[in-house]
# Entry
Amino acid sequence: MGGSAGQGGAPGEGGAGRGVSGDGRAALGDGGRENPGDDYLDRLRRHLARYKSYPQEARDRKQEGTVVVTFTIGRDGTVSGAHIARSAGTAALDEAALDLLRTANPVPALPETFAGRSATVSLPITYSLSFLNRLF
# Structure
């Protein structure tokens, strides 16, 4: 399911990574081949990955899923307004995704080429167990 990248909120705000798949391609730029928006979203995903942890409760119960989180990033990288746009169906995974954003705050600052004061982003956070962890 793709999304409509680049949808903004209030005036002066921009959008990025809209959609369940976290598309975000060309969301923070003009869609050119050397799009700064693509680079920013890649940096954002890498930054968040460093803070991601699998909740032990969910691991013990062999729970997996994808949480879609929506949040706003200020020009300086400050995260606000984080909420669950789509639940993984497991409270432990949903809470872990919100904890991830709290722990990772601030995220990389918005690129200088981004015109808005903030960007609203929806990204999937996937929790999946390895094959061996599913068995044992």
The two ends are 33 Å apart (CA to CA).
